[in-house]
Each structure stands twice: as structure tokens, then as C-alpha cells.
């Protein structure tokens, strides 16, 4: 196998529940050793798609391939995948080591070798010495680790994670995010994570598929998703994005001249032009951190506008300003790092706002 | 509940309910053939008399055979019904489950009468077997109720996890589902056993020449001399019933605690 061969391949996968069209033609590939996320709001089909890999959902048409092999007719217990469930699904009547060793029941290895494998798996997830404990007496984070050890001990080709961190509190979740990344690098297994938390997906993934209503809206690495969302919907779902109306003036080869409210005439590259505009027509989108309040008294350039500060939200390390750029209707959000010595502006103040054409995205 | 009227009512109710039962052990140990106060002194002679009654032993044997069979059959049927009602969706599910549970509120007399008519018409001889049939009918709803609660508190992803880790549906059932619903099964067995043991109408209607414990006791009341021995028997039965029901409830609660669910019902 060369590295270019996909680990998972979806070929025009459709899934119907009665009349409900849950998956609408999913075509995508996931590379070996990749940390891949399926991201989307609840009901978008991300969990269903994950379960088609595990073998818990039949597909209505299309094909799901794991490591080049069509999974049609292969039951869940014969697939080279293992899953970490949202509820962890720790067997409550078994001890921690019995849980972790559960998948080795049919393994021909000797008892001692299996016990060693269980010990190694527990050590890998930081639960060394917990083997004899009763599973139902564990905390949420510990259950999570047992579930991971139990799935990884079988050395699957793909580890499927169904919202594994959603039941944990914020601090524990952030800690487990880092541990999952570390674990994935250590074992080198393809991880597929289902999550509705865009931040989690950005932090953890090599690539992310954003799903809406049974379709993949965009599949890209986190940076591309954040900087070049291919539709307003994706832009809205991932982080915060400001939108202002725009008009296309002139279309050249590889570039477009637009007139954007508040910014005036801008020249944008073809790579910045996306589809997915709404009914109101073309829009420019930009992230809060791509605008800057200009504090210095440098001479005015053609890449700045005057604005009125309408709201100030102070966060300690950051300050968020809602500003209305002259000539526009809706306020936009700017985030500024609170560098020492830089004053926090007051509501109602006038400010010069600098922007960069390269950070804009045009939806048309 | 602050008013003394309510308090008095509650006490009167409980006295009315339990005082007659308390009388059983009192007269079982009373040294007199007459069931009346004042008490005449302590004796265990009635237990001895009871012990020697061969018709009683025959009735006990019949009752045990019936109750054990009923407990096992009802629980097995309840297992199927509870599993399908909690795990699968099928057409007319609510209606089917309702019909299964109906004997819970159907007068036993109706069950007994209609079965008697059918059995006589078909020409099946009345025996222990016909009593078992009648009892299974009324005990199965209890088994379904208890086992549904056990299955409901079972996280469905446990099954999927076992399946995902390489087990077949059958081995998953033995390794995961059965151990986790086992407390419910034990509880169902005990409750069905108790219900069947106590039951009178069906046993009387469908028993033919075979006498079970409840019917035997009723018959003995015609002979005043036998009454103290019946009191002794009753005392034993009360103890047995309390033990069985308490054990059943213990297992039901333990089952829910074990699978991490919330207690949402039960009989005690």
C-alpha cells in the first residue's frame, strides 16, 4: 500500500430512513494515519456517516470502502474498525481490565500475553494500576480512557470516535483533546471524530468535513476552512465571520473588481471568490481579527475606513469591538489583542479601521 | 397530612389491612381449637398436625410444580416481549403490548371462566397443566413489566460495543445483555412464583381433581378443628411471601443500580 491509497472511501453514499434522506450522496476519501473530523450541527448526518463505517447502519446506495475493501455485507464484528461511543458504553458488570480485554476474547494469544496487552493499553491511556477497579465506579474522564484503551487494544485500522468529549466538562475536554492528539500520533491509526464543536474540530483535526443536511459542504484542512470557507453557511458555522454587501464591477482573468460597502473598490484574487451567496446577493466576509483599529497617526491609506464604535466587550487578553463602518448599515466585529499600553476605546468613539484585501472572501 | 383526621384514617387503614394477618401467627401458636381471645397458652402442636397431613403435602407438591413452571414460562415469554418492545419498532406495537398487559386488569374470573369453557369444549382434561396455562396468562404481564424496566435501563450502545469488539449477536446476548438483565429475570421469577402460589380462582376453576394449596386451605375451613393447623400453614406462607417479594425487589433495584439507570417504578 502506498500512502496515497485512501484508508476510507465513500462513493456516492445515500441513506434513507423511510422518506427521510439522511445522507445525500457522500463522496470523500480519508487518508491513512489522518485525524479526520466530521463536523456539523445535530441532525446533519455526521453520526450516521460514522456508523456506516462501523457497520451499524446499512447504506441505501453507494459504497463504503475501508483500506480498499468494500464493506457491503461485512458485519460490524468483522470490520477492521473500532468505535468509542458517546456514552462510552463501558460494560458496567465488568472490571476495568475485563472491559479493556473484552475484544481479545477470541484472540489465540496466551492469558499472560493478553494480560500484558491489557496492561500496556491501560498505561497508554494513563490508567496504569486501575485494572481491578469496577467499571461503574469510574469518573467520566476515566471511562473515556477505558473506552479508548478497549478500542485501541485491537489495533484497528480506523478508530471511530462519536462525540467522545461532549459529556466532559470544559477543562477535562481540553485536556482530553490534547491527549487524543498525542495518542493518535503515538499509535498512528486513522482517527475519525464526529463533533458538533467547531473549535474542537479545528484544534484536533488534520482535515475536516463540514456537513449540513446530509451533504458535505466543504472538506479541507482547518486553516483553509477558517480562512477560505466556500459558502456563507460554512463561514457562519466555523468561528465568527462578518458580512457586508458587495457588488461585482468587473471580472478579469484570475481576479475580480468589487465595490464593497464601507471598503469601496477592492481587487480580489480568484482564490478568494466562493459560491454560496444568499438571496441578498454578493457579500464580502472577513474574520474579526483581520480588521485592525489604527492607533498611530500614520497617514491615511486606501486600505482603511472610518468607523464608530458601538459596543465594547472586554475579555482581559482581548477586546471585542462592534463597530459600524461609515457607509454601512450593520455593525461588524473586530477583535484586538490588548497589548500593554494600548488603551481600550470607549463606546461612541471614532476610529480608523485598517483592513487587508487578501483576508476577504467574496461569496457570490 | 398534618390534620389528625388524616393521620387517624391512615392508621385505621393500616390496622384494617394488617391486623388480620398478624392474627395468623398469634392463633397458630395458641393452645386452643377455638379461634378466640383470650389466648390459652403457647404450643407448636398445630405445626406438628399440619406436618402430618398428607393431603396438604399433595397440595403443596402440586402448588410448587405449578408455581415453578409458571415462573419459568412467564419469565421466558416476558423476556421475549420485553426485549422486542424496548429494542425494536414494529407495526401495531402499542396495541400488541397493550393486549399482552391487559390480563393485569382483566378480572381473573373472566379468564378462568372463558378458559374453562374453551378447555371443556376442546375436550382437554382439567389438570395441573391447565392451571399452569391459566397462571402463565396472568403472570406474563408482570414479567413483561419487570423485564421492560430492566431492558429500558440498558444502554443500547453496550450491545453495539460488544458487537464492535468482535462478538456475535448471540455471544453479545450471553456476555452483556443477560448478565445485566439477570437481576430483572430473578425478580420476575420470584414475583411470578408468588402470584401463582397465591392464586385461587383459576386454580379452583381449572384444577379438576387436582388440589393446590390455596384451594386446599379454603376447603379446610369447613372443619373447625382444622382451622388452627391452617393458621400455622398461613404463618409459614406469610413469611415465605414476604421473603420472596423482598428478594425480588432487592434484585430489581440492584439491576438498575448496576447498569447505572434511574429507578422509575417497580412494585414495592
UniProtKB/TrEMBL annotation, chain B:
Family matches, as InterPro entries: Bact_Polyamine_Transport, MetI-like, MetI-like_sf
ABC transmembrane type-1 domain boundaries: 60-248
Matching CDD domains: TM_PBP2
SUPFAM superfamilies: MetI-like
Sequence intervals crossing the membrane: 9-28, 63-82, 94-121, 128-151, 171-193, 200-218, 230-251
Membrane-related topology note: Multi-pass membrane protein
Record-stated family: Belongs to the binding-protein-dependent transport system permease family. CysTW subfamily.
Protein name: ABC transporter permease
